[in-house]
Amino acid sequence: MRLPLLILSFIFLLLNGSYYKEEIKNPQTLTFKSNPLISTDFSVLRDTIYTMKDHVVEVNLATHQATVRFRNGAIKQFPISGGNKNIEEGVDTKEGLFVLQWKSKKQYSTQFDSTLMLYWMGFNGGIGFHALATNGYYRYLGKKNVSHGCVRISRKDAEELYKILERGTPVLIHKGNSAITVSFGGSGEVYKYYPFDKLKNILSQRFTALYNGRYFLENKYKILIDEENVKSSGLPIGNADKIPSKQIITSDQIYLSKGSSEEDKLDIILSENSEKNFKLSLHPFLDSLYARR
Fold this sequence. Notes:
Layout: H1 2-25, E1 47-51, E2 55-60, E3 65-70, E4 75-79, E5 96-99, E6 102-109, E7 115-124, E8 127-132, E9 151-152, H2 155-164, E10 170-174, E11 180-184, H3 196-211, H4 215-218, E12 223-224, H5 251-254, H6 262-270, H7 284-291
Parallel strand pairs: 1-11, 1-12, 2-10, 8-9
Antiparallel strand pairs: 2-3, 3-4, 5-10, 6-7, 7-8
């Protein structure tokens, strides 16, 4: 009797061993899934603000360079010379998020002996883009900030920009550590639109969430700006140095269907009981990361 029992026990163990080995050889049968963004460095994340205009201007005062981004994907880069508080009656060009407030082909400075400013495009009160009639300032473009506060550009660049930039075009001024970026909005998408004073407070809250790693948990709406809700004093742009490498992301906030409308996406991402698995996020930063995988 013992021999048959031993034989049966051996066969049982052999079969069980084969079963578990087969499972290991076929890892695709396992049910758990790994978050594809687990190793992402989110210190490059920026709060995204949206515009319905066709251009965005970004000025880096540290590199003395500016870039115009077009809605069609084209870009134009050009050298600038910003304000310098160390020259007589000068001030540093203020950092912030502004929009073009008004334009004039010829503007005379009442502060500096009626100096002629060509292709004036103001965004921060008496501060704006412009060219000068003389060529002496050209040697500083792209190299040094020497203006009394405005952003000086060449006459050729000024004339070109004057033709294409409309009132309300976003102007982002920084020294390389802005926590904001501006993206192009589109018809059919859902945005929140706030008056200037409330918008400043909301941006402050969004920055706090970004610095605390809760950006995708708390910032669930796209914000739209234009010439009506951005005053000449500008909006804060935060500090990118405070952005951590990790952000908290839950599964129902990452994956959303490409075929869903913006309204449906918002309904899904705001739903506390969402248990679905989708493939496109509400945020362009997450979308770009997921698309690379």
